[in-house]
Amino acid sequence: xxxxxxxxxxxxxxxxxxxxxxxxxxxAAAWDLTSLRCSFGTFCxxxxxxxxxxxxxxxxxxxxxxxxxxxxxxxxxKAFVQDPAPTKPLVLSLHGWTGTGKSYVSSLLAxxxxxxxxxxxxxxxxxxxxxxxxxxxxxxxxxDLKSWVQGNLTxxxxxxxxxxxxxxxxPGLMExxxxxxxxxxxxxxxxxxxxxxxxxxxxxxxxxNQVVLEAWRSRRDREEISLQELEPVISQAVLDNPHHGFWRxxxxxxxxxxxxxxxxxxxxxxxxxxxxNELAQLGxxxxxxxxxxxxxxxxxxxxxxxxxxxxxxxxxxSRIAFFL
Length: 324
What we know:
The chain is of the alpha/beta class. The chain has 13 helices and nine strands. The chain has helices at residues 19-38, 52-62, 67-82, 102-113, 128-131, 138-155, 178-181, 205-217, 227-240, 250-253, 268-281, 288-296, 316-323, and strands spanning 90-96, 123-126, 160-163, 186-187, 190-191, 196-201, 259-263, 300-301, 308-309. Helix 1 (19-38) packs parallel to helix 6 (138-155), helix 2 (52-62) runs antiparallel to helix 4 (102-113) and helix 11 (268-281) packs across helix 12 (288-296). The chain is globular and about 60 Å long.
């Protein structure tokens, strides 16, 4: 289940300082290509070619312990894609502890929605550390980000934007996206309402862990935990976190997020599942000594129960390489 178990990690897009210049050249090149196959249509789908069967199969096989996230993502995405005239873009916010599969699931969405996957020119990935590292440059970042999003949506309204590590983003920057996420942003004949925005953060992870821990202590089955239990605590965690990109944001206040997607903490048998997946990807047969060595080297918490993996499945691949 780890983001590295299939090798589809989101790739970094261009350096922010070149956003304005690059967006123009990318837009021009992409427009030349897409206009040929879309010139007779009213809306260009670019290389958008959803494969829900493949997505559901991959999620079922490689993502363990996330019944809520898998069901919510597939249901929401299907409804959005099958709607010929959505009222607004699809906006998903993924929350949970490190290593629980947020980045991996987002990479799967790109892979099964676009023919080019994460390498598609219509899939755009942003990281605070890479693209917005200096809070003192915030005004420039706002201008460049707005220009980049608007330029790429003008080229192709059916675009995917991934924003990673939202809990490391300087608050205020995401407000430039506010007009793009609602129901009224249509410019130059482009239907921006068919775009997809995905935001990823660890915020809410501790609160989700606490709900799952209390369920375990009450002998409730993990699959009995409902979205209704988790949505309020995630939302409050975002609102209370001054380091989150949505802190005091109109995006939250106007309920422009279509779904808060919770990722639950991983237990020992989930980590074992990740080890088996990684061995299979390496073309290796399951080896009990390797599996046990990885589990023994993994830190679990809380201290008394030793229930959840501290890093989820994030370090499984490197640990396997060490013990082979």
